[in-house]
């Protein structure tokens, strides 16, 4: 049924870069056979899933939205993909994204735009717009995204779906094509909070192949989602982050946010205001740290090892000239912009002034979170300042594009978990997202509060 739905809506939505129909049907048949034999199966066995194209899948094209990886078929599975396969979830295919996960609209994909199912002239968010659109358009009930600065939560907000950025180290990064290694985290994109919890529990937990993977077991996220569904939040203290509202936020977004606060109070939660004074510098710090790490991570795309190889049009074919020709042709403008920025920020003489200062700001933001979590069990904010904007509207203005992530980026800088869930429609008839943030390793709180609001 999902493959039929994909065939029907893909010409308009374009959420997928690759559909693996035969493999998905084979997995579904295998799960049926195992069920018929009376085998004990995972709760999500047989439930189809879509995977963002930044996650490597053995033998299946994986491009990270870039020309430079066109035609590359990875020789192994990411840990999270291996876990999905072992549990018997048919993988429907790979979803569209901004090139190397750099963007907030999926318009930086080298393979064309994804359209928001709510209004096809609008962006589905980014960088994981394909995963969110696939879930919103009922092409897939579950999807995997990755979130370095908001790429799971902002697409969830603008497509009326649920998206979770787990605690850093909670879901293995083995087999993710790295953007910024100290910020990247994979997580669920779904239509309900409980679905996200089930998927988080499946793909999360310790992995010896990722040196930053948390060794202790995950908190009981599924239990928390089930408990939250009873709608009782008495004893829970909710902190409204003063710096993540007001100027720059659309009136309809703020109105839905206030209504969600009312629902929290009605559920018995105590709502207080908290201040995180350094959040105002989060975007600036992020756009030094991210390009610095990305410029290093993307150095491996050299025309020798993976995908595209372009030989210089004239002159000698030296390694350096092949690299220059391949990278010049293979990377898009946004990727080049960030490689240049990052290389500059890391260069001798500027390292302390830029990268070093940004890391100090990161520490101040972590301290803001620590102080806020001394006053509240969870923090809340709108997920994104506006609803989905029109395709093309911000494409020529990188700063306007970057501003989409003001409310999501602090979460990545501190490594704490965040969830976005639908908070109703704005005055323009488009979905608004409500963000819940918890302390590191307390992802269960996201699910309890999220399920209570649903
Ligand atoms: N929009 C942000 C950026 O462009 C977030 C990206 C992400 O989370 N992968 O960096």
TrEMBL record:
Function: Allows the formation of correctly charged Gln-tRNA(Gln) through the transamidation of misacylated Glu-tRNA(Gln) in organisms which lack glutaminyl-tRNA synthetase. The reaction takes place in the presence of glutamine and ATP through an activated gamma-phospho-Glu-tRNA(Gln).
Family, as annotated: Belongs to the amidase family. GatA subfamily.
EC number: 6.3.5.7
Species annotation: Cellulomonas marina
Catalysed reaction equations from the record: L-glutamyl-tRNA(Gln) + L-glutamine + ATP + H2O = L-glutaminyl-tRNA(Gln) + L-glutamate + ADP + phosphate + H(+)
GO cellular component: glutamyl-tRNA(Gln) amidotransferase complex
InterPro entries registered for this protein in UniProt: Amidase, Amidase_CS, Amidase_dom, AS_sf, GatA
Lineage: Bacteria, Bacillati, Actinomycetota, Actinomycetes, Micrococcales
HAMAP family in alphabetical order: GatA (MF_00120)
Protein name stated in the entry: Glutamyl-tRNA(Gln) amidotransferase subunit A
Sorted UniProt keywords: ATP-binding, Ligase, Nucleotide-binding, Protein biosynthesis, Transferase
Matches recorded under PANTHER family: GLUTAMYL-TRNA(GLN) AMIDOTRANSFERASE SUBUNIT A, TRANSAMIDASE
Recorded GO MF terms: ATP binding; glutaminyl-tRNA synthase (glutamine-hydrolyzing) activity; transferase activity
Active site residues of this protein: 52, 127, 151
Domain annotation Amidase: ranges: 1-446
Subunit structure: Heterotrimer of A, B and C subunits.
Coiled coil: none
GO annotation (BP), single: translation
Keyword presence, ATP-binding: yes
